[in-house]
Amino acid sequence: MVDWAGWALFGVVATVLLTCIMIAAQMTGLTRLDLPLLLGTIVTPDPDRARVAGFFIHLVMGQVYALGYALVFAVLHRATWWLGAILGLLHVTIALTALVPLLAGVSPRIASYRAGPGSRAVLEPPGLLGLNYGLRTPAATVAAHLVYGIALGLLLTPG
Amino acid sequence: MTATVADMDDITPIEQYGLIGDTRTAALVAPDGAIDWLCVPSFDGEPVFASLVGGTGGGRFRLGPAGAATVVARRYRPESATLETVWDCAGGRLTLTDGMVAEVAGRLLPTTMLVRRLRATGAPIGITLHFEPRFGEGRRWPRTEQRGELLFCGWRRLALSVQTTPALAIEPGRPVTAVVSPDRPLTTVVCFAEGEPLVHAPPTAAWDALEADEARWRQWCREITEDVPRRTAVVRSLLTLRLLTYSPTGAPVAAPTTSLPEQLGGVRNWDYRYAWPRDASIGIGAFLGVGKNNEAHRFMAWLLNATRLDRPRLPVLFNLHGRRPHPDHRVDGWPGYAHSPPVRTGNDAANQRQLDGYGWVLDAAWLLTEAGCPLYAETWRAMAGFADTVASQWRETDAGIWEVRGGEKHHLHSKLMAWLALDRALRIAAGRRTAPRRTGRWRQQRDAIAADIRARGFDRDLGSYTRSYGSRDLDAALLILPLLGIEPADSRRIEGTIKAIRRLLGAGGPLLYRYPPGDDGLPGAESAFIACSFWLVQALARTGQRGEALSLFDELVDLGGPLGLYPEEIDPVSHRGLGNFPQALSHATLVQAALALRDAYRPDPAHR
Q1: Shortest Cα distance from A33 to chain B (angstroms)?
Q2: Is a pLDDT exceeding 80 seen at residue B523?
Q3: Interface ipTM above 0.85
Q4: Same domain, B175 and B322
Q5: B50 domain residue, yes or no
Q6: Would the CB atoms of A112 and B105 count as touching at under 8 Å?
Q7: Residue B359 domain-assigned?
Q8: What's residue A48's pLDDT?
Q9: pTM for the full predicted model
């Protein structure tokens, strides 16, 4: 049985934690990856407004992913910090190798490596593992997702 | 052994190369039809054709007449990036058309595609095709495989295919001869893929894509304002600047080449396949001035993205993805252009401290604001941070705009640009809500810089501002003085500085040395620096000497040759090009000079 109440509440908590770590990583110069900005520029070109919109888009996405965690915990009848961490590693692997590079295909404002003179996209492509946004981007992103997974592992019940 | 100008008959002069590109990478085409330089998949990628600096084993792709022939014309098709070379051969003419397809988004085309077509007129003409791709620093031969009509060449991550219509049996490193008849041109396409599946485009489809691209470039050029002097040269410069802007990130590369020497046999061989914030900022002014606001915005967006990790410090240069360039590295065994080693990759200037960059960037932000393009809050936060940095660091020494390796000094140009940074920050702040304490500090420091410059940077005997505090040398970068507003453009100090620079740094005609030749901590000397000549045109136009400014501008435009491309420097005696080619700064300052002339000739000049 999925922990629906836990998912509704702690999905938000874990996503906010993840977002805060990514913002802190950016503010301390570890990475230029700015997930709210990347997501928000799908709907607006103004960076400040985009961050607000992107924050909420990311919140919804975090909630969707948290459902996956809750389902795995329910299937395994187990919710622990280390299981959350393993799922977090799986999650970040997919995010860095597939989701982030694919953003260029979704957002009209993220350029691709094939961009030409007609491109109106002004955000550079993140590249594999987001390395275009700084060499420490993968480390910061892994840390944030580990915290996300561990938080869900500790806070959700196995059902 | 190093070639001198006298024995360079068998070496293609730098300025005779033509540039073709796709805004991700670029190739240089010699008058004999050889592509002597191409890195893939980006400007700073590994070279596939590098005989320009890599010697006979560096790789090249020659397509041209088999027998004796004379080049009778070299030109770009009007307002396009497509290059044409015409030879007079026995009995007829042969025209080579070269281009790269820039717009591939949304279509199943290779990211990098080189298209070449030979057309004969008057009579059938014998041609030769010599395809020799050699990859990377090791100049490695490819593994090859004939796949139907196309030849596949592969290295580890890189693959390419080459095909011609009508079909020729191509073998890397071995010249192939054929006859091109007037009714049937020979079309060649080379498709590249790095770390992705190779997409092959048949020659006819590639040619169609190139023609569609050409139409887009013409449309792009038509959007450029009509009211600039020598518009053809201005359009060519803007098109070159756009070709040198890496579209995936918006980074403007200083030049697509590395290690073309500033002096034959000298040591001033640098890798320019990087992006300098200064160039982006000058480019913003150039594009805004001709109505190309989108390009100006892209440069500012690149500046914001690239500097995010380092703010409020402004690094000197970045690679195409906003990262720090590799340190200088000498490529073993590469002879260099005209046997002028070393060939370098990477750039140590990234470790220098240069204060002038802040001034260029804040001036560009002000120009955007003035043009009615309001800065986003994030952009203003970044600019204000830069102004804070200048306010606290302007008293320190730096390497200066010329990236001198001989130690830091109090360069006057850097102080001027520090003043400019704070002045422009104050102008922008006047239209926004900014803490009075912050603007008060900027104002106080701006005025302190002006007083310091007047007290320590002017030599009464010379009647001129000097290169650095305590020095009696001059610096042609000071020609920007009348553009800033730190003192009236018609002041005696500015007039004296312009005159002294022309007298003491003049290299004949419109040419200027940037500083006393060789006075930069490195052995040897160098040639006239083109951007300084265009700054002179601007200075004269802004100080009421518009007739002379126009005359010098005309002379400089004529120095650009039939293709209108400029290297970094010109030998004052032979007028041969030196340094990396073509250089973005030369072209951006050409446009700025044309804009200054336009303003000077308006009934009511719109001074900044």
Answers
A1: 10
A2: no
A3: no
A4: no
A5: yes
A6: yes
A7: yes
A8: 83
A9: 0.91
